[in-house]
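Rotation project, supervised by the postdoc (A.L.). Task for the rotation student: set up a whole-complex structure prediction and record inputs and outputs verbatim in this book. Inputs entered:
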Amino acid sequence: MLKCGMNGSQVKVFGKAVQALSRISDELWLDPSEKGLALRSVNSCRSAYGCVLFSPLFFQHYQWSTSVEMNDNNRISNLNCKLGIKSILPIFRCLNSLERNVENCKIFTRSDKCKVIFQFFCRHGIKRTHNVCFQESQPLQVIFEKNTCSNTLMIQPRVLAEAIVLFTSNQEEVTLAVTPLNACIKSSNEESMDLTNSVYSEMFVGPDEFDFFQIGVDTEITFCFKELKGMLTFSEAIRAPISIHFDIPGKPIGLSIDDMLLEANFVLATLADEPSRGSSPQSTCLSQKRKRSDVVCSNSKAGEKNSKVTEYVSGKAARKRLYPDETLTDISTLENCGSPTVKRVNRDITEVPESSVSDTEEVPGSPYLRKFACMFFGALSSDPREHFDNPFDNLATASDSEEDMNNGSYSTS
Amino acid sequence: MKFRAKIVDAACLNHFTRVSNMIAKLAKTCTLRISPRHLNFILSDKVASGGVSMWCELEQENFFNEFQMEGVSAENNAIYLELTSENLSRALKTAQNARALKIKLTNKHFPCLTVSIELLSVSSSSRIVTHDIPIKVIPRKLWKDLQEPTVPDCDVSIYLPVLKTMKSVVERMKNISNHLTEMLHLQIIEANRNGDLNLKIESELVCVTTHFKDLGNPPFASENASQDRNPARMAEVHVDIRKFLQFLSGQQVNPTKAICNIVRNKVVHFDLLHEDVSLQYFIPALS
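Outputs recorded:
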């Protein structure tokens, strides 16, 4: 059972978080825990993930209690609350007027019905109540070790906003290229080669414009920036710098804001280089090795699953778990995702040892196809048995249908 | 063919950006003509533009402190490029607080106009922004369609009122005409040599006219003056209201000089001067 309260200015920040996450997908998970209230969102292609965690200190009061008698083996269960963004966005419209008029806002859940209740106590004795039904769905979380990334930047949101202005709305992807000397944000090469009418733009930013600039490996990564814009607005609203963690192409890029009272994390997939496109054979071997090591990883991990809900996989695993793994998805499903760049997805990791070579094949007839790497998702389930039976069920299928989501192992059943 | 130019003055840069914004509003695709002394933005009267043509001229000395060009050949010392106007205006939009702006003709995979901007930033280091705008080089055989249009002998020549006022009037008229007559989006522009200008829309149900008076007529001597002795007689032209509105929307700032020349039932010619940039815009009459 969740019960929390906010004042007017806290509501504004909360609303900004909802708006930022609305850029990622049409659905939002409300995920309370003893660590605080997390809002999570994943896009349908599983190439973007956002999470804003409000610590209990953010709220005027915060109470999260689990009803133990519901479960037979004393495990902590999640609220498993998924809301449609269309239901929740209108509640947090006109944030400036909300900030002025709302004296108190209460959010609570009812244990008997699948409802979240938002109550606004406004000036002049007006009380506004919204009952929002939710779907029972176990939240997904992304596993991303930002501390093990080779490259870390910290930048004021204003600078990033000035860079984003360069790109038109029909250019979905941007490339971030870094060397120890500078950083460059530019239009994705792939798009400008296809459409000869699009402008190619690039902006070089010197290291002194960053609050923190540490480059371990020279790299160029490409990702969709539509989802980024939401996060940018949010960070400008709370006036906090953005930390960017990334590595080589194919590995996700993580953008985070760490405030005392809240923590926001956005993880975006990046385009993986086709090894046949000229990257060194050594890197190909490395990526294959990594895939294999991931297979080993998830097997061992399955046995030691703990019941604590954690935001990221803890640093216990020495190996990086960044390389994307995805269950088999055929291209037709991907085409429905709406992302123009999702071309192909890595095969199911059970097949990895044999097919890791075939992954590097280009799809015949499309020389420009690149793999758009998706991220490794794990379900927030505390039941060790679920994982042990079939460790690969943790992986989110890139399917859009609700039934698949609920029938998969990552829903409570 | 070579072209390199540089702007360092903030006022010149802003002016150039404003011109580019105006062109982007007036024509989706246009021709940029580069010659030793001028830059021209040209829209020729093809069917695609509905017969509308535009000739915008600026003297390069007033903008660039460095300007080098080499045309196709010594006799034809000009470069004609086709580009999407919005690409240029968007690129210039990022040059708000630039220390310097460079434009040059380059060939990166395909011919481009490269706009390179050196931005001032809060910290000491300057940021470099580059935009490669794809362009098409127009071959010499098509140059004849892109020459400066001849100003027709007009029946009436009149100074225009404040363009913003005209624009808000025409906008309202357009809404009415859309609602009432689906087939024609007609705007009647008529003026006389007494300084009267009328904008009219007509339909079966209603007729709306806005009268502008005491606008003044520029002095001119032509044969028409002697033929038409009645200065109060209106010369009118029927044009597509959408094109007229598009022209008015493109004028963000009120021009230094604005003249409207009407050739009865043929064409309306707008001759504007924005500080030192001249714009001529022709809208043909609807038959």
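Student's summary: Residues 281-303 of chain A form the longest helix (23 residues).
Supervisor addendum: The domain at 2-69+77-136 of chain A is CATH 3.70.10.10 (Proliferating Cell Nuclear Antigen).
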